[in-house]
Amino acid sequence: MIYTLTITLNHRKPLNQRVIQISDSCTFGQLAQIINELYGFHGEHLREFRDEDKITINHPEYSIPDISTDEFNDPEFDDLQGIALQKSAATYKLSEYFGDHTLIDFTYDFGANRSFEILFTKVDPEGKYDQQGTQTTTSDRSTSYCIISGS
User: What is the CATH number of the domain that holds 80?
Assistant: First the structure.
């Protein structure tokens, strides 16, 4: 399936927005790479996806473990139960998240606080990109996507 996502850079005027299409099998790490390239970032800062349900998706080297797994059904880890559910951006796929959610926030470079809102708007079950869009790949050619609007 192909998802259509609207990515908005918050707190900027005029509105700074990109609309892309991307495969549901992409990971959040791949989506972060696409956002970096769309906005001219170099990927050298910490980044995080976060939603209102306390799901946090981070680079795996900067995350606490996923406390929803069986290994954390141990009294030793009871103090972690109030912490947000952590997922690894390297493995957590868009299809695992956007089945139940339509919105997630993305922060890149916590010092500069580049904050984005990512809105899931549409699914193409046939897996076809919009013919009006510009199909491209990330600079390392690992992920293909389609730019519908924005530059």
Answer: 3.10.290.30
